[in-house]
Each structure stands twice: as structure tokens, then as C-alpha cells.
Design goal:
The complex is a heterodimer of chains A (about 550) and B (about 350). Chain A is of the alpha+beta class. Mean pLDDT of chain B is about 90; it is low at about 1-20.
Chain lengths: ~550, ~350
């Protein structure tokens, strides 16, 4: 029963009691693997049971009714520290994240769909949620990845609604275009059905763990710099790994050396921290098999400097093509192709099962790791994307036969950069990349059969936005675009040279011009430079 | 010679005194003060100088401000919407603080106020609260409601459930038994029966062809009897218009107008008591002729966005504050006449006639 008097003193005492109950400072002894008698782990019991009791079903309240990624658990623990008085050491925090991710984590299939969110990919255009109520009630404030990277019981999804209304009571004012509680109820019904805590894939995965020790080949792509190849070696010590990696861009830039410290969470989520000269780099990878690791990396101080990487386990038995340049082969031409990989001296023409109208006319070994080839594509060959099945050879990636390059697209299609660098807030740059496309079989632009041909070198510039608007041009203030497409925003804070707006925020139109297969192509996209990510836990 | 000087003095002296106070103030015997919601303080401005008359320290940013009929007592919401401060506006002193947090048998009841009003006689306060119970390891939402508080004992006397979206409580003029409750729609609370009824659908109009109204009344007006707010309207054909909605606090009649131009977004509006002109503000200042529904004058705030616009007590000047740390006096042609630097950033301003 709610007492009706305003007992402010009692309230303050109550807060102190709750805080003190939550703030038990557990010992720092090493955590043991959970047993059936232990709720998640000894560390979780020590740090969490001051507030989270065992419910009637024998589970630790709340905690054993949800599953999350390491990033999700990290945010939850941070909130417990920030608002509920939890006091723990760095080692204990790390142990909690490890234990919770292991016992209450996500299956690889569940995490794959939200990799963009886990890796905090910049300017990423998230697909619209399938459920209209979810779209209405949730993503006005944060990304769908935030809750799609969680699994909860129906009761826990309901608790999330109450959590929002109690923690952020202004929610109904900034959502006054809808009845938020009602919309949230519908969203919860959908989430409980589609993101329930029980799942076969998790039951199958839980308890497994990859060991990534050993040597790997690396293929990566960084916007503005292109593809790179490299070598890596992981060494295991206790529950962590160290990595030595060297990579070299195909455009001939210098070799980069990276040394990293990393850990595998939930048996497959590899989280890396590198140092490369003055830069700190974070990696968000998933081990998808004994022989394959895929993921993303970004600079700690500038999320916009980022790339994608795939690791292939080094083996000495069979030829394995891990990268090809180019991957799009034009019809009616003899295409000069370079294959990169392992044991390529053993590769024979018969190992590559090419589609009709595509013929390998010349294959020359440059080394055991590089081949040059001539691929003749008949004018009448089918325009399509395909994989190469090759006898004893493994060929990774997809290839394309196309008629002609018809248009360009810029990625990201809506670039969001953030001012920063003058104070405590980091800036966020954008690596603009122009991709060539072919219309495909139907000869029409922006249809399902359009073929993405790959990144192309382009000439970059900015136009005022909106074009032709008199008296408004944000370009002198918001930042600069380099010849390779790297957009660097200006610093945050007051710019006294600017009238009215007074900060270096604004919009521009990005223009890319490229000559592809002898054809001049131009494309435009939208760019904004906005405020630093002050609330970076709500993304 | 001396006699002539004395006669002149006798004639001039009253004129000097009269010229020192606004004509209206002299006739009605009031002191005009502008109360500005600052951060950690209520800023009291004497607009005649203009100068800061007082700074009243409270916890956190100040939100709602309401006053008794005689203007001598004010109710201010602050402390992250958890505390109501009762202020003696003559001495500029806090005389009472009501904290709305409470205990339950399972934890703490976190109550936040989104709309509050002091009764015309200053004896009671009314507050719309959202309620969240913070239990040991979970949060539980309780229904939102309007509570009646006795300001002397700080006891909650009565309450009634009220819909989400409520954010302004305002007494009907000359009627201490009726509260207008502004939310997504306009409700009326009969304080005798403590019964809430829908008065007019705004977000949910009877006929959607009249347009679905959307407003956020963080800047309620009504000191001159006219509560007014910028209003966005969305029509079934996709048309979106911007304009003003205002209500005569005595009759309860609501009127609206729509500008003849593209919406730019406005935060607050004030309508003069003769309903001739309206003034709105945010990144632009508009003066709107109500009869023709045309914007007749347009200007730009001198130092950046301003949230709040109000009229002087005699309705001869336009006052602006809210957002930055400034109070601006402009004439009715939107020309800035005086500026006053304030000690903190601000949210809104209320113009109060304090009876002498």
C-alpha cells in the first residue's frame, strides 16, 4: 500500500538503504566456472545478490531472465554503478561481463543480425523494424539494435516498459504524437514472441568455445584506402590472447604493424584492443568457424575511421583464394585478375568451376600467395553474381559478370559526422566510398537485379545544401573532404565567425565523380555535421 | 519668486511620482515583476529598470510557475520535478517546500510533477504526477494522477487519475472550483466533485477533418486571461500547418489561427487581452494580426533562440526570455529596446501583478 504522506526524510533514508545494499563490495578472488548450484557465477552472486534475490522459480531475479551481448551486460553493469550504488573493481567488472556473457549471452545466429550495433558502425542505416509499434515506440530514441541484441522473458519485456516510464517519465511528452504506453504494449507483445529468452540456437551454442591460437591470413577493407591483406598470429595466455598483425594496402602503401590484446566472450565474440602508433583501435569480431573470423574495427578516438576484416586460418594443404581484384568481370572483355590466398602454386584451372561464358585463358603464379589470371567473358554470358566452386580449392567471396557500369552510389548514403577534438568529445569522421553499379538484366536502375561492381576511385567535392539557397552555405564551417573521400569535421564549440548558428554544424551535398570502363559517372548524397555524441550510451 | 517655485514643485512632484510607475500600475495599484525560471534559482526581474530584483535559490532547474490571484504567493516546481516551492513574492522568500517523493512497503515512490497550480487563495496546490515505484531490483509504474495538497500540513487531501500527456494545470479565471487540465486534449477538473471530464479534443478532435492538434505547453500563458500556445495541425490530406491556439480563461472558449506560410517551429505565444495581436518566438519572432491571420511583422532574436514570450502587465511591451541568460524588452514592432543579462540560462518567464 502506498503511504500518502510525503515522507521526504524516510525517502532519503530508504535511498541510502537501497544504495548501501547494492554497494556491497565483494572480494576480488578469481571467479570459478558456474555450477548448477551457482547463479551464473560466484562473482555475480557476490556483486548482484544484494539487490537481486532468488525468485520462486529458483532464478536470480531479472538477471536469469535475460540474455545479452558483452556490450549489453557492460551497459547494464555501468548503470548499476551509476544509479544504484554498485561498487566494484575493474577486475570484478570484467569478471561479471565474462560470466554473464558466457551464461546469459547470445548465440552466434542471434548476434550476427546486430553486429552493426555491437561494433557501433558509423553512419549505418539500420533496417526499419518489421513491427510498426516497435518502430513507433522504440526507435524514435535509440537504435533497434539496442533491444534486438537482447533476449527476455515476456515478464522482462514488460519490466522494460516500466523501466522506461520510471527512468524517463518525459517519454510521454516527447512521444505525444502517439499513445506511448499503448504502443509499447503492442511492441512488447511482438518482442516477447520474437525475442524470447528461450531459443534452440542458444541451447545448442552455450558452453562451446573457439580457440583462435595460431596463424591467420587477413583480408580487410577500409573506406578511402581500399582493400588490404595481411598476416596475424594469436597467442593464448590464460583466458586472453595477444595478437601480432601486419597489413598492407593493395594500393601500395606502407605495411602497418598492430599489436593487440583480446578476449573471447560467449565462446566466439572476439573483442580486441590494438595499438598502432598513436592510435588505439577496437575490434569487434566473431569467430564463425575454426577457420574463419569476421568483424569490424574502428579507432577509439574517431569511430568514423573504421574497416571490415576477415581472418582465414593458415593451412598448407589446399589452394585457397581469399581475395580477388577485381571481382566484377566485364562481358565481351578479357579481364585481368589477381588472386590472393594460400598454396596457390597448387591451383589448377580445373579447380575453378566458372559459369557458362566465363573462361580462364591464362593463369600465372607470382608466388604461393598470388596468381595473375586472364578471364575472358563472352558477350552473351549471363549478367549475374556467382560463387566459384572449385574441386579441392576453396574460393571465398562472390564474383560478378556485368555488361557495363551504369551508375554510382556513395556509401554511407546519409553521412553523419560529429564535431569534436577541441575538448573531451571525440570527433567522428566519414570515409566516403563510391561504388559502381550495373543495371543488371532488366536494364533498370535501383531494381533487385542491379549488380554492385565494387569500390572505384573518385573525385570528391562538397556543394552547398540546399543547392542554390541564397545566403546559406555551411561548407566553410562544418569540415573538409579530402581527395580520397575522407571527411573530417571541424571542432565543437562556439565559432564566433558564424552568425546565428554559432557552431560548426550544418549540411552539405557530397559529390563523387568517377570514370568507370571509360564512362564518366557522377553521384550526389547528403551529409550532415552534427553535435558530438554526448549521450553515447543511447545509440 | 519662492512662492512660484513652491507652486511649481507641488505641480511637478506628483507628475514625477506618477511617471516612475506604469500608468496601469498606478491605476490598479500593483507592482509588476517578471519571474524567470532559471537553473537553481528563480530570477525576479523588475522590468521598469530593468534590473534583477532578487534571486531565490532552489534545487535544480525551475519548471512550472503559478501565482495566487493577488500575486503575493507563487508556486514553483523544481528539484528535477520533485519539489514544489511556495514563495512569498513580496519578500521574495521561500516559505514552504513540498517534496513529493514517498515510501511504499516495497521501496520508494518516485513522483514527478508535470503541471502544477496554486489555488487562487494560496491554500492548496494541485499537481499532476507520474508515479514510479523503485523496488529493490525493479521499477513498477503506478497510474498518473492529479493530487490535491494542503500547503499548510503538506498532506495529500484527494486525488484523481489523469491521463498520460497532461502537462499544465490552470485555474479557470474567477472560479476556484475548476481547473483546466491541458494534456493531449483539454480536460476540466471539477474540484468540488474531484471529477475529471474531457472538455475538448485537440489531439483527438471530434472530426479529424478539422485537423489533429499537437502542442507542448511548456510555456503556458494566461496572466492577462488568455492562455496561448503555438499549435501544429495535421490534416487527413497530409497538410501540416503552424499557428496559435488560445483560450479565454474565463469563458473557456478556445480559438485557433493558422499562418499563411510554412511551419518553422515556435515554442511559445502570447495573445493580448483584446485578441488583436499575438506574438510568438523561437528562432524567429512573429507578430500576428489575429483578424487577418497574417504575420504582420517578423524579426530575429538578437543573440539566438528564445523560448518564452510574454506581454508587460500594461501590454505596452513584449518581454522575451528562456534558453539563454537574457531578458529582453522589445516594443510591439519587435524592436529590441533593453537587454538584461541574467545569472543563469533560463526556461520561461511569467509577468505578475503583485497587489500593493
Amino acid at each position: 500500500m502506498i503511504k500518502q504522506k510525503f515522507l521526504s526524510v524516510a525517502a532519503a533514508v530508504g535511498v541510502a538503504l537501497i544504495v548501501s545494499a547494492c554497494a556491497e563490495n565483494p572480494s576480488t578472488e578469481t571467479n570459478e566456472k558456474a555450477t548448477s548450484a551457482v547463479h551464473v557465477s560466484q562473482q555475480v552472486e557476490k556483486s548482484c545478490m544484494g539487490c537481486h534475490a532468488v525468485d520462486q522459480g529458483g532464478k536470480l531475479e531479472r538477471i536469469e531472465s535475460v540474455r545479452k551481448s558483452p556490450e549489453g551486460w557492460s551497459q547494464t553493469i555501468a548503470r548499476m554503478e551509476r544509479t544504484h550504488g554498485l561498487t566494484i573493481t575493474d577486475e570484478e567488472r570484467e569478471q561479471l561481463i565474462t560470466d554473464l556473457s558466457r551464461e546469459r549471452g547470445l548465440a552466434p545466429e542471434e548476434a550476427e543480425k546486430v553486429q552493426y550495433w555491437l561494433a557501433n558502425k558509423p553512419s549505418y542505416a539500420e533496417p526499419d523494424p518489421k513491427n510498426e509499434s516497435v518502430a513507433q515506440s522504440c526507435i524514435n530514441c535509440h537504435a533497434a539494435g539496442r533491444f534486438e541484441a537482447q533476449r527476455r522473458t515476456e515478464e522482462e519485456w514488460k519490466n522494460l516498459k516500466d523501466f522506461h516510464l520510471v527512468s524517463y517519465p518525459s517519454i510521454y511528452l516527447n512521444h505525444r504524437h502517439m499513445d506511448w504506453p499503448q504502443e509499447a504494449d503492442k511492441a512488447i507483445e511482438y518482442l516477447a514472441k520474437n525475442y524470447g529468452v528461450e531459443s534452440k540456437v542458444w541451447d545448442q551454442w552455450k558452453g562451446n568455445e573457439y580457440d583462435v591460437s595460431g596463424k591467420w591470413k587477413v583480408v580487410g577493407f577500409q573506406g578511402t584506402k581500399g582493400f588490404y591483406l595481411g598476416e596475424s598470429e594469436f597467442t593464448k595466455a590464460d583466458d586472453r590472447y595477444s595478437e601480432k598483425k601486419s597489413v598492407k594496402f593493395l594500393t601500395g602503401q606502407e605495411t602497418k604493424q598492430l599489436n593487440g590484446d583480446m578476449k573471447i566472450y560467449t565462446g566466439y565474440m572476439l573483442r580486441s584492443h590494438y595499438k598502432q602508433n598513436d592510435h588505439k583501435i577496437n575490434g569487434f569480431y566473431n569467430v564463425t568457424s575454426e577457420n574463419l573470423i569476421k568483424g569490424d574495427w574502428s579507432y577509439k578516438e574517431d569511430l568514423g575511421i573504421s574497416g571490415e576484416e576477415t581472418y582465414y586460418k593458415v593451412q598448407t594443404e589446399n589452394p585457397e583464394i581469399i581475395h580477388s581484384e577485381p571481382r566484377a568481370w566485364r562481358k565481351g572483355s578479357v579481364n585481368k585478375v589477381t588472386f590472393y590466398g594460400m598454396n596457390l602454386n597448387k591451383l589448377e584451372e580445373k579447380d575453378l568451376n566458372l559459369p557458362k561464358g566465363v573462361e580462364l585463358t591464362k593463369l600465372t603464379a607470382v608466388s604461393d600467395e598470388q596468381l595473375t589470371a586472364e578471364v575472358k567473358v563472352d558477350k552473351k554470358a549471363e549478367s549475374h553474381m556467382f560463387v566459384i566452386n572449385g574441386g579441392q580449392a576453396a574460393v571465398h567471396g562472390k564474383f560478378t559478370v556485368y555488361d557495363q557500369a551504369d551508375y554510382l552510389k556513395i556509401e554511407p548514403s546519409y553521412g553523419v559526422s560529429r564535431m569534436g577534438g577541441a575538448g573531451p568529445m571525440d570527433k567522428m569522421s566519414i570515409q566516403y566510398v563510391a561504388y559502381a553499379y550495373s543495371h543488371g538484366k532488366d536494364g533498370k536502375k535501383e531494381t533487385e537485379d542491379d549488380l554492385k561492381l565494387g569500390p572505384v576511385p573518385a573525385e570528391w567535392s562538397l556543394l552547398p545544401y540546399p543547392e542554390g539557397a541564397e545566403g546559406r552555405d555551411d561548407r566553410p564551417y562544418i569540415g573538409k573532404i579530402a581527395a580520397d573521400g575522407l571527411y573530417t569535421p571541424s571542432v565543437e564549440g562556439v565559432n564566433e565567425e558564424r552568425e546565428f548558428v554559432q557552431e560548426n554544424v550544418g549540411s552539405a551535398t557530397v559529390v563523387a565523380k568517377a570514370k568507370v570502363d571509360g564512362k564518366e559517372l557522377t553521384v550526389k548524397s547528403h551529409h550532415i555535421t552534427t553535435v558530438p555524441d554526448y549521450v553515447n550510451n543511447i545509440h | 519668486m519662492i512662492r512660484r517655485l513652491v507652486q511649481l514643485f507641488i505641480f511637478v512632484f506628483p507628475l514625477l511620482i506618477l511617471s516612475a510607475v506604469p500608468a496601469g500600475a498606478a491605476a490598479e495599484k500593483y507592482t509588476e515583476r517578471v519571474f524567470i525560471s532559471g537553473y537553481g534559482q528563480i530570477i525576479v526581474v523588475d522590468p521598469a529598470a530593468p534590473k534583477i530584483a532578487a534571486s531565490i535559490k532552489v534545487k535544480g532547474p525551475v519548471r512550472d510557475m503559478s501565482f495566487t490571484d493577488d500575486g503575493k504567493t507563487g508556486l514553483f516546481l523544481a528539484n528535477d520535478r520533485k519539489s514544489l516551492y511556495v514563495v512569498d513574492t513580496v519578500q521574495n522568500k521561500i516559505v514552504n517546500e513540498v517534496n513529493l517523493e514517498a515510501r511504499t512497503d516495497q521501496g520508494l515512490l518516485d513522483r514527478r510533477v508535470w503541471g502544477s497550480a496554486i489555488s487562487p487563495d494560496g491554500k492548496k496546490a494541485y499537481a499532476f504526477v507520474t508515479q514510479g515505484e523503485k523496488r529493490r531490483s525493479s521499477f513498477k509504474v503506478h497510474p498518473s494522477k492529479i493530487i490535491e495538497i494542503d500547503l499548510k500540513s503538506k498532506e495529500e487531501l484527494r486525488s484523481v487519475e489523469a491521463p498520460y500527456g497532461t502537462h499544465v494545470l490552470q485555474f479557470k479565471q474567477n472560479d476556484a472550483n475548476t481547473l483546466f487540465v491541458w494534456g493531449y486534449d483539454l480536460f476540466e477538473l471539477d474540484l468540488k466533485k474531484m471529477k475529471l471530464t474531457l472538455r475538448q479534443g485537440i489531439k483527438h478532435p471530434k472530426n479529424e477533418k478539422d485537423g489533429i492538434g499537437n502542442y507542448l505547453m511548456l510555456f503556458p500563458r494566461g496572466e492577462n486571461g488568455m492562455n496561448s500556445i503555438p499549435l501544429m495541425k495535421e490534416y487527413p490530406d497530409g497538410r501540416v500547418t503552424e499557428g496559435i491556439m488560445w483560450m479565454n480563461r474565463e469563458s473557456g472558449t478556445i480559438k485557433t489561427l493558422e499562418y499563411d506560410r510554412e511551419p518553422v517551429g515556435m515554442f511559445s505565444a502570447v495573445v493580448d487581452k483584446e485578441e488583436n495581436y499575438a506574438y510568438t518566438t523561437l528562432n524567429k519572432w512573429y507578430k500576428v494580426d489575429i483578424k487577418s491571420q497574417k504575420i504582420v511583422k517578423e524579426s530575429v532574436p538578437p543573440n539566438g533562440s528564445l523560448y518564452g514570450v510574454n506581454l508587460s502587465a500594461d501590454e505596452e511591451k513584449v518581454y522575451y526570455s528562456g534558453a539563454g541568460n537574457e531578458f529582453i524588452i522589445a516594443n510591439k514592432e519587435l524592436e529590441v529596446e533593453k537587454q538584461l543579462v541574467l545569472p543563469t540560462d533560463t526556461l520561461d518567464l511569467k509577468v505578475v501583478k503583485i497587489e500593493q
